[in-house]
Amino acid sequence: QKEVEQDPGPLSVPEGAIVSLNCTYSNSAFQYFMWYRQYSRKGPELLMYTYSSGNKEDGRFTAQVDKSSKYISLFIRDSQPSDSATYLCAMRQTGANNLFFGTGTRLTVIP
Amino acid sequence: DVKVTQSSRYLVKRTGEKVFLECVQDMDHENMFWYRQDPGLGLRLIYFSYDVKMKEKGDIPEGYSVSREKKERFSLILESASTNQTSMYLCASRPGTGGRETQYFGPGTRLLVL
Fold this sequence. Notes:
heterodimer; A: six-stranded mixed β-sheet; five-stranded antiparallel β-sheet; globular; B: mainly beta; seven-stranded mixed β-sheet; four-stranded antiparallel β-sheet
């Protein structure tokens, strides 16, 4: 079983839709949770970062962590064509150096 | 702004060649990482370094080595390139101490081994 599972999609939505992206994980020691956005042929860039459980909002983006269910989500409101990218979840334990990544979900927002 | 640069965006090499991939960061970060990214497999950690001349194996170190002679530079070496090393290679860096957790990625090097 992989440490982090993520539905690869692809996911296509019309402009203005609410998008929900999700990851599940198996290691209860993960405490730091991140979402990266990767445009085609570019390196990933950090989008959202949360520590432990709870919600975090940044503009049109909301990250949720439910540690009891080992489940994290990224919501995108009022999606735009410029949101078309691959979204990667990542997580790590306290004190550890390396991140565990999901395989990424490819999102296309259709104008 | 943090900047992580990689020496090449695209490389084509032949089987058996020795390949060097260079990564430079300009933010005085202690930690540097090399990943490869393949469809359906996501990012997999090859090696990381938490200080000059220090290195740790990641999940898939076989066929690779690394060098960190200066804090800002982390090199990935393919001793004898093989076709199964065709991939996208991503370098990242991160500050050493606590606080905001993030890894900053370079733009990637797309390597094709023929």
